[in-house]
Design a protein that fits this description.
Length: 191
Protein backbone atom coordinates (compact mmCIF):
# COMPACT_ATOMS: atom_id res chain seq x y z
CA UNK A 1 0.00 0.00 0.00
CA UNK A 2 1.06 3.58 0.29
CA UNK A 3 2.72 5.20 3.24
CA UNK A 4 -0.59 5.78 5.03
CA UNK A 5 -3.89 7.29 4.03
CA UNK A 6 -4.41 10.66 5.66
CA UNK A 7 -7.14 13.24 5.99
CA UNK A 8 -6.21 14.79 2.62
CA UNK A 9 -6.94 11.43 0.97
CA UNK A 10 -10.20 9.98 -0.25
CA UNK A 11 -10.92 6.35 -1.04
CA UNK A 12 -13.47 5.92 -3.86
CA UNK A 13 -15.16 2.52 -3.88
CA UNK A 14 -16.96 2.26 -7.21
CA UNK A 15 -20.00 0.03 -7.82
CA UNK A 16 -19.06 -3.12 -5.90
CA UNK A 17 -22.54 -4.53 -6.44
CA UNK A 18 -23.98 -8.02 -6.90
CA UNK A 19 -24.89 -7.52 -10.55
CA UNK A 20 -21.21 -6.92 -11.41
CA UNK A 21 -20.09 -10.04 -9.53
CA UNK A 22 -20.45 -13.79 -10.02
CA UNK A 23 -24.07 -14.76 -10.71
CA UNK A 24 -25.06 -11.15 -11.42
CA UNK A 25 -26.77 -9.64 -14.45
CA UNK A 26 -23.60 -8.07 -15.86
CA UNK A 27 -20.82 -10.08 -14.26
CA UNK A 28 -17.22 -8.93 -14.40
CA UNK A 29 -14.71 -11.80 -14.40
CA UNK A 30 -13.15 -12.07 -10.92
CA UNK A 31 -15.29 -9.14 -9.80
CA UNK A 32 -15.67 -10.70 -6.35
CA UNK A 33 -11.92 -10.60 -5.87
CA UNK A 34 -11.87 -6.84 -5.42
CA UNK A 35 -13.90 -7.12 -2.22
CA UNK A 36 -11.19 -8.40 0.12
CA UNK A 37 -8.68 -5.88 -1.22
CA UNK A 38 -11.07 -2.96 -0.87
CA UNK A 39 -12.09 -4.04 2.63
CA UNK A 40 -8.48 -3.56 3.74
CA UNK A 41 -8.42 -0.08 2.23
CA UNK A 42 -11.77 0.79 3.80
CA UNK A 43 -10.50 -0.33 7.21
CA UNK A 44 -7.40 1.79 6.82
CA UNK A 45 -9.45 4.79 5.72
CA UNK A 46 -11.70 4.35 8.76
CA UNK A 47 -8.65 4.20 11.04
CA UNK A 48 -6.92 7.22 9.56
CA UNK A 49 -9.86 9.53 9.00
CA UNK A 50 -9.56 9.57 5.23
CA UNK A 51 -12.74 10.40 3.35
CA UNK A 52 -14.57 7.35 2.01
CA UNK A 53 -16.91 7.52 -0.97
CA UNK A 54 -19.13 4.54 -1.82
CA UNK A 55 -20.95 4.63 -5.15
CA UNK A 56 -23.64 2.43 -6.61
CA UNK A 57 -24.98 2.16 -10.14
CA UNK A 58 -28.66 2.75 -9.42
CA UNK A 59 -30.90 2.61 -12.46
CA UNK A 60 -34.66 2.95 -12.94
CA UNK A 61 -36.24 -0.14 -14.57
CA UNK A 62 -36.46 1.68 -17.92
CA UNK A 63 -32.92 3.04 -18.01
CA UNK A 64 -31.69 3.99 -21.48
CA UNK A 65 -28.57 1.79 -21.16
CA UNK A 66 -30.67 -1.40 -21.13
CA UNK A 67 -30.95 -3.45 -24.33
CA UNK A 68 -34.77 -3.37 -24.18
CA UNK A 69 -34.47 0.44 -24.37
CA UNK A 70 -31.96 0.33 -27.23
CA UNK A 71 -28.88 0.51 -25.01
CA UNK A 72 -25.76 -1.69 -24.81
CA UNK A 73 -26.31 -3.49 -21.46
CA UNK A 74 -28.59 -6.16 -20.07
CA UNK A 75 -30.91 -4.94 -17.32
CA UNK A 76 -28.67 -4.46 -14.26
CA UNK A 77 -28.48 -2.57 -10.98
CA UNK A 78 -32.14 -1.67 -10.88
CA UNK A 79 -32.66 0.54 -7.83
CA UNK A 80 -33.71 -1.40 -4.76
CA UNK A 81 -33.23 -4.90 -6.23
CA UNK A 82 -30.80 -7.49 -4.83
CA UNK A 83 -28.59 -7.07 -7.90
CA UNK A 84 -28.08 -3.43 -7.05
CA UNK A 85 -27.07 -4.15 -3.45
CA UNK A 86 -23.44 -3.98 -2.34
CA UNK A 87 -21.63 -7.30 -2.46
CA UNK A 88 -22.53 -8.96 0.83
CA UNK A 89 -18.88 -9.24 1.95
CA UNK A 90 -18.08 -5.60 1.29
CA UNK A 91 -17.33 -3.60 4.41
CA UNK A 92 -19.93 -0.85 4.77
CA UNK A 93 -18.37 2.01 6.72
CA UNK A 94 -20.50 4.08 9.07
CA UNK A 95 -18.80 7.27 8.04
CA UNK A 96 -18.82 7.69 4.26
CA UNK A 97 -20.26 9.70 1.42
CA UNK A 98 -22.86 7.39 -0.14
CA UNK A 99 -23.74 8.12 -3.72
CA UNK A 100 -26.23 6.41 -6.03
CA UNK A 101 -25.77 7.42 -9.65
CA UNK A 102 -27.24 7.06 -13.16
CA UNK A 103 -30.76 7.41 -11.79
CA UNK A 104 -32.09 9.47 -14.71
CA UNK A 105 -33.83 7.09 -17.20
CA UNK A 106 -32.73 9.17 -20.20
CA UNK A 107 -29.06 9.60 -19.39
CA UNK A 108 -26.14 7.21 -19.04
CA UNK A 109 -23.67 8.26 -16.40
CA UNK A 110 -20.58 6.23 -15.60
CA UNK A 111 -18.62 8.68 -13.45
CA UNK A 112 -19.16 9.23 -9.75
CA UNK A 113 -18.46 12.91 -10.41
CA UNK A 114 -21.17 13.32 -13.05
CA UNK A 115 -23.90 15.58 -11.68
CA UNK A 116 -23.33 14.43 -8.10
CA UNK A 117 -21.49 17.38 -6.58
CA UNK A 118 -18.74 14.99 -5.51
CA UNK A 119 -15.83 17.23 -6.54
CA UNK A 120 -17.19 20.07 -4.40
CA UNK A 121 -17.72 17.78 -1.43
CA UNK A 122 -14.17 16.48 -1.67
CA UNK A 123 -12.81 20.01 -1.90
CA UNK A 124 -14.82 20.99 1.17
CA UNK A 125 -13.20 18.06 2.97
CA UNK A 126 -9.82 19.42 1.78
CA UNK A 127 -9.10 16.23 -0.13
CA UNK A 128 -6.11 16.40 -2.47
CA UNK A 129 -5.52 12.79 -3.48
CA UNK A 130 -8.03 10.14 -4.44
CA UNK A 131 -7.51 6.37 -4.46
CA UNK A 132 -9.90 4.52 -6.71
CA UNK A 133 -11.00 0.88 -6.95
CA UNK A 134 -14.11 -1.09 -7.83
CA UNK A 135 -16.06 -2.16 -10.89
CA UNK A 136 -15.77 -1.99 -13.72
CA UNK A 137 -12.30 -0.82 -14.69
CA UNK A 138 -13.16 0.01 -18.32
CA UNK A 139 -16.42 1.89 -17.55
CA UNK A 140 -17.31 3.45 -14.23
CA UNK A 141 -13.83 3.26 -12.71
CA UNK A 142 -12.20 4.77 -15.79
CA UNK A 143 -14.79 7.54 -16.07
CA UNK A 144 -14.44 8.34 -12.37
CA UNK A 145 -10.63 8.45 -12.57
CA UNK A 146 -10.66 10.73 -15.65
CA UNK A 147 -13.16 13.12 -14.03
CA UNK A 148 -11.17 13.19 -10.79
CA UNK A 149 -8.08 14.21 -12.79
CA UNK A 150 -10.07 16.85 -14.68
CA UNK A 151 -11.25 18.21 -11.32
CA UNK A 152 -7.62 18.67 -10.29
CA UNK A 153 -7.15 15.80 -7.84
CA UNK A 154 -4.06 13.63 -7.69
CA UNK A 155 -5.39 10.22 -8.69
CA UNK A 156 -4.14 6.73 -7.85
CA UNK A 157 -5.82 3.69 -9.37
CA UNK A 158 -5.55 0.59 -7.15
CA UNK A 159 -5.05 -2.10 -9.78
CA UNK A 160 -5.63 -5.18 -7.57
CA UNK A 161 -8.91 -3.56 -6.46
CA UNK A 162 -10.48 -3.42 -9.92
CA UNK A 163 -11.39 -5.68 -12.88
CA UNK A 164 -12.55 -4.90 -16.44
CA UNK A 165 -15.72 -6.05 -18.23
CA UNK A 166 -13.55 -6.52 -21.37
CA UNK A 167 -16.33 -6.54 -23.97
CA UNK A 168 -13.28 -6.41 -26.22
CA UNK A 169 -10.30 -8.29 -24.75
CA UNK A 170 -8.00 -5.26 -24.70
CA UNK A 171 -10.47 -2.84 -23.07
CA UNK A 172 -8.93 -3.12 -19.63
CA UNK A 173 -5.42 -2.45 -20.95
CA UNK A 174 -6.64 0.45 -23.06
CA UNK A 175 -8.42 1.93 -20.05
CA UNK A 176 -5.20 1.75 -18.03
CA UNK A 177 -3.24 3.46 -20.81
CA UNK A 178 -5.84 6.18 -21.07
CA UNK A 179 -5.85 6.83 -17.34
CA UNK A 180 -2.07 6.88 -17.18
CA UNK A 181 -1.85 9.26 -20.17
CA UNK A 182 -4.30 11.55 -18.39
CA UNK A 183 -2.05 11.63 -15.32
CA UNK A 184 -3.24 8.84 -13.02
CA UNK A 185 -0.75 6.71 -11.11
CA UNK A 186 -1.38 2.97 -11.43
CA UNK A 187 -0.74 1.26 -8.09
CA UNK A 188 0.17 -2.34 -8.87
CA UNK A 189 0.68 -3.41 -5.29
CA UNK A 190 -1.79 -3.46 -2.48
CA UNK A 191 -2.13 -5.13 0.90
C1 LIG B 1 -21.01 -0.03 -15.29
C2 LIG B 1 -21.68 -0.88 -17.31
C3 LIG B 1 -22.95 -0.41 -17.10
C4 LIG B 1 -19.92 0.14 -14.28
C5 LIG B 1 -22.27 0.46 -15.07
O1 LIG B 1 -20.21 0.30 -13.08
O2 LIG B 1 -18.74 0.11 -14.69
N1 LIG B 1 -20.71 -0.69 -16.41
N2 LIG B 1 -23.23 0.27 -15.98
ZN1 LIG C 1 -25.20 0.71 -15.42
Amino acid sequence: MIEQLASADALLVVDVQNDFCRGGALPVAEGDQVVAVLNRWIEQAERTGATIVMTRDWHPPNHCSFTDQGGPWPVHCVAGTPGAAYHSDLRIPQRAIYMDKARDPDRESYSGFDGTGLAQRLRLAEVERVWVGGLALDYCVKATVLDALAEGFEVHLILPATRPVNIHPEDGHKALDEMQQAGATIERNSP
